[in-house]
Amino acid sequence: METALNIDVATLDLPHRQALEEVIGKQLASHQRLVISVIELVPPAVEDSRPAQSLDDWTKIYDGLSDEEVEEIDQVAKTRANLSRDLP
């Protein structure tokens, strides 16, 4: 959406002229034209701080761990998975 307004200062009533002068920070002469533009900004791309992951990456999650370490992790996961609510 791009829009532009061209306003002849001489056509403005006093309150509107004063409001615009306050916005731009200077007095307007009657021979001037005020141009106000509204432009659409493209938001900056948000970069994900995490690297992309594939299924292959997850198949190597336990690489380098002993059987005991894997079992420890498994027990924690199973404990968390058993959380339940009192359902009828």
Determine Rg (CA atoms, Å).
32 Å
Order of helices and strands: EHEHH
**Order of adjacent strands in the largest pleated sheet:** 1-2
Count of DSSP strands = 2
Proportion of helical residues:
25-40%
Tell me the number of helical segments per DSSP (H or I, 4 or more residues long).
3
The helix/strand class is alpha+beta
Which term fits the overall shape? Answer: rod-shaped
N-to-C span: 54 Å
The residue ranges in which pLDDT falls below 50 over 5 or more consecutive positions are: none
What does the largest sheet look like?
2 strands, antiparallel
Amount of beta strand: 5-15%
Instruction: Tell me, rounded to a whole number, the average pLDDT.
Output: 84
Question: What does this protein look like?
Answer:
With 88 residues, the protein is of the alpha+beta class. The chain has a domain at 3-38. Helices cover 35% and strands 14% of the residues. The protein contains three helices and two strands. A two-stranded antiparallel sheet has the order 1-2. It is rod-shaped, with a radius of gyration of 32 Å.
Which key features would you list for this structure?
two-stranded antiparallel sheet, 2 strands
